[in-house]
Amino acid sequence: MDTIVFQIGLAVVLVATVGLIATKLRFSVIPFYILVGMAVGPHAPHFWIFDFRFIESMEFIDFMGRLGVLFLLFYLGLEFSVSRLMKSGKAIVMGGLFYIIINFLFGLLVGWMMDMPLKETLVIAGIMTSSSTAIVAKVLVDLKRTANRETEIIMGMIMFDDLFIAVHISILSGLVLSGATSFIGVLLTSLSALIFILLFLIVGRKVIKYVDKGLNISSSELFLLVIMAALFLIAGFSETAHVAEAIGALMVGLVLAESAHVKRIEQLVVPFRDFFGAMFFFSFGLTIAPSSLGGAVGMAIIAVVLTIIGNVGAGMLAGRIAGISNRASFNIGFTLASRGEFSIIMANIGKAGGLLPVVQSFAVLYVLLLAILGPLLTKESKRIYNLILKISGQDKKEQKLQDG
User: Fold this and answer.
1) In sequence order, what are the residues at sequence separation of 6 or more whose Cβ sits closer than 8 angstroms to the Cβ of residue 120?
2) Which of 189, 315, 342, 384 is the Cys-Cys partner for 174 at CB 3.0 to 4.6 Å?
3) Predicted confidence (pLDDT) per residue in 166-207, tens digit
4) What are phi and psi of 347, to 5 degrees?
């Protein structure tokens, strides 16, 4: 036990150290967490007595990673509002739809090009469709763009995408985790998952006033215990309906988002989200053998190029509908390019369902590339846009329009 506790301490030190380095560099911490996990995983090289691999504690760290997924999705549910999304306007709805359709189709195309089976192809399509809420929000804050007009469109499109991903994960759970093989079996398990989600949300909205009365607890300790009990029980029970435990956590958050106590819940949950969320990315890195990544390099590069093209197209469409400038529309596409937590969650569903290991390798490379490129492209979007205008000869035309 002492060895395991000591290794957990070392893991936290490593995660904190690379987090500090990433913060100093003003960069996304997610790729740093994954890379340091890969560097000390069971597959990492070791020499003589210099063995820094996390082996004895790996199972416990993996459990901490699972908790990280629950807290990430639970917090997202607390922040999410379907009514707010519906009020966001035509630009967000149309841009979000186009964003989802083009990225999902590109994902199907990559799966088809690599001759992947259906289940693997659907997981890849989901991985390529899910933007990283955490990275995007952090980049917008770091670059001081929260007041920009296009930021509202960006966050609205992410909310739209998150809603789609929640449905897609529930369908994937029915398809991959249930063991159903026939079309009817897959359809029934997927429908049962969606029905369970809808019923839970409907009933939750009906009983929220009674929940609020039950949450009138002055003690922070007891209040937190009640919230945790609801989170873990419902997340665990949801798997019996072929719904991933992460979606169970999301549903609890969606219901409690309507609570009068939502701000208090957020304040108590944020430290758990941040700590266990970091351990989630670290634990994901531990499971990856660096030597296995080579087979997915070409696939990941193709997917990254398609993602950037698709996102810029979706951003330009959303910007045109909203009536903002082409430069601001360009920002939308680059900002949405980052990939992170949800892509890894879907890769883990594939792993739990025994899908081909290449899906995991693809997810690692794809997330790493876009977690690095996304913030860089966002930061340099103005220069890139000006360079494109200069190359195409459109800079003079735009200057005349501005002068006129």
Assistant:
1) 111, 350, 355, 356, 358, 359
2) 189
3) 777 777 776 776 655 555 665 666 676 667 777 887 888 888
4) -65, -35
State residue 87's pLDDT score.
57
Q: Which of 170, 146, 328 is nearest to 242 (CA)?
A: 170
Q: What is the DSSP string of 1-22?
A: -HHHHHHHHHHHHHHHHHHHHH
Query: Using CA of residue 61, residue 284, residue 359, residue 341, what is the dihedral sign?
Result: positive
R_g over Cα of the chain = 22
**In this predicted model, what pLDDT tens digit does every residue of 269-290 receive, in sequence order?**
989 988 998 888 888 788 777 7
Phi and psi at residue 50, to the nearest 5° = -90, 80
- In sequence order, what DSSP letters do the residues of 120-173 get, joined into one string? HHHHHHHHHH---HHHHHHHHHHTT-TTSHHHHHHHHHHHHHHHHHHHHHHHHI
Token pair belonging to 395: 């800079």
Distance CA 116, CA 299 (A): 11
Q: Evaluate whether 33 touches 15 at the Cβ level (below 8 Å).
A: yes
pLDDT of residue 25: 82
Strand partners, 50: 47
Among all chains, which residue has been given the structure tokens 């846009």? 385
- What is the dihedral sign for C-alpha 250, 252, 255, 261? negative
In this prediction, residues 59-88 reach a mean pLDDT of 75
For residues 116 and 111, what is the distance between their CA atoms, to the nearest angstrom?
5
Structure tokens at 277: 């969320």
Question: Which ranges of 287-296 would DSSP assign to H, the alpha helix?
Answer: none
- If one counts every other C-beta atom within 10 angstroms of the C-beta of residue 280, the result is 30
* Residue type, position 257, single letter: A
Q: For residue 47, what are the β-bridge partners?
A: 50
Report pLDDT for 117: 87
Q: Contact, 367 vs 344, CB < 8 A?
A: yes
